[in-house]
Design a protein that fits this description.
The complex is a heterodimer of chains A (about 80) and B (about 300). With about 80 residues, chain A is mainly β. Helices cover about 5% and strands about 65% of the residues of chain A. Chain A has one helix at about 70; strands at about 1-20, 20-40, 45-50, 55-60, 70-75. Classes of the chains: A mainly beta (about 80), B alpha+beta (about 300). Strand 5 (about 70-75) of chain A pairs antiparallel with strand 1 (about 50-55) of chain B.
């Protein structure tokens, strides 16, 4: 899937975007960013924007809602049918 | 006087015939009504129930009770049904349902097309099921009601082999409670080198929150090669020339009823009965003693 990272700051800063512990992208001396990033999500996940000192500047939790049809399926054979 | 008796008898026969036709018509109309009086079509699964299953999980059950699958062959043994294991697993596309393995290629809201493989059942009638001696008293072989008919005992002919079938299956969920299934299979291990197919219409009825009924009617079609491999008699069977038999293709209609009552989270009471009426392509074979195959079982099921 593709996510869009958008942020802005009054002063130019060095930052990195993390998906949990995984580093997705970094920017140097930027005041604003609007970038598409390819990634994958299979469960609820928190994205964080961290500066070079390790301070979390912003965070966003993304919740995954699996569609019902993927969880349950119609059975295709008669139950207890011997043959 | 003789003519009067003859005329009276003929009139009675006509009345009986008309009465029979009326009964058949009424029964047919009732069956059609039962099958068609259903809620609007929707085959989407929203939760796990009798017809829907959670994907990605193995489901293992064991039925314990008493039942039998009759064997239509001369010299064949009825197959006891005492302990029945049952396994099913559904992934997003892959599935296993006891003796069937399949992969769904297309899944729309109402129609699912799958490729499947399953063991062909015909060999089971030519197999000696020693298990019956372990579990239950021996069934007596059915009395031959047609002693004048030339017959061949299945123990005296060349061994028939197990066949593994493969092919396509289409499930059409006409509504929440009606399903039409069609399958066309060919043996994939080169045993009989023919086809078989099944058309089956299921009706699901909820009698209460815990009691479900599944009634079905259908037709099993068997190609000439399948029928002849299992039920034909050739010179290689080394029997009398007068017993040679060339089987043709044909169909076996069947009806079945399955009733389940949920007793607790893990326990379920189970009853099923099925009768398949053998077509003349099989029933005329000298190997055949009974022109139908019946199965029945009553017991309890434990789901692990």
């Amino acid at each position: 899937m593709t996510i869009t990272a958008t942020w802005q700051s009054p002063q130019p800063i060095d930052t990195c975007l993390y998906q949990a512990q995984k580093k997705l992208s970094c920017w140097q001396q930027q005041t604003q960013v609007n970038q598409k990033i390819a990634t994958s999500l299979d469960k609820d996940m928190t994205f964080t924007l961290v500066n070079t000192q390790g301070k979390i500047l912003a965070s966003q939790k993304v919740k995954i809602n699996l569609s019902q049809s993927q969880l349950y399926r119609r059975r295709l054979r008669a139950q207890w049918s011997l043959f | 006087m003789t003519n009067q008796c003859y005329i009276t008898t003929e009139l009675e026969l006509r009345k009986l015939l008309l009465l029979s036709i009326n009964r058949i018509l009424i029964t047919t109309v009732l069956l059609i009504y039962i099958f068609l009086s259903s809620p609007a079509a929707s085959a989407q699964c929203k939760q796990a129930d009798d017809n829907c299953v959670l994907t990605g999980q193995w489901h293992i059950s064991t039925a314990l009770g008493a039942g039998v699958l009759t064997n239509p062959l001369h010299g064949g043994e009825n197959i006891p049904l005492v302990v029945l294991p049952y396994i099913h697993y559904y992934g997003e596309q892959f599935f296993i349902e006891n003796n069937v393995i399949g992969y769904s290629l297309l899944q729309s809201e109402d129609v699912i097309l799958s490729v499947i493989s399953q063991l062909n059942r015909e060999k089971s009638f030519f197999t000696q099921w020693q298990a019956k001696h372990l579990f239950i008293p021996t069934f007596s072989d059915t009395v031959n009601l047609q002693p004048e008919k030339e017959y061949v005992n299945q123990n005296e002919i060349k061994k028939r082999k197990w066949a593994l079938d493969g092919g396509v299956q289409v499930n059409w969920f006409i509504s929440d409670t009606i399903e039409l299934k069609a399958q066309l299979l060919h043996d994939i291990n080169n045993v009989y080198q023919g086809f078989n197919s099944q058309l089956r219409l299921d009706k699901f009825i909820s009698l209460s929150n815990n009691t479900r009924v599944n009634a079905a009617i259908g037709l099993n079609w068997q190609s000439q090669k399948l029928s002849n491999y299992y039920y034909g008699i050739s010179p290689s069977d080394k029997v009398a020339v007068r017993s040679l038999y060339q089987a043709k293709s044909g169909s076996n209609p069947f009806i079945s009823l399955n009733i389940r009552h949920q007793l607790s989270q893990h326990w379920q009471a189970q009853f099923f009965i099925k009768r398949e009426f053998l077509g003349s392509h099989i029933s005329n074979s000298p190997l055949i003693q009974e022109s139908n195959i019946s199965s029945a079982f009553v017991g309890v099921v434990y789901a692990f």
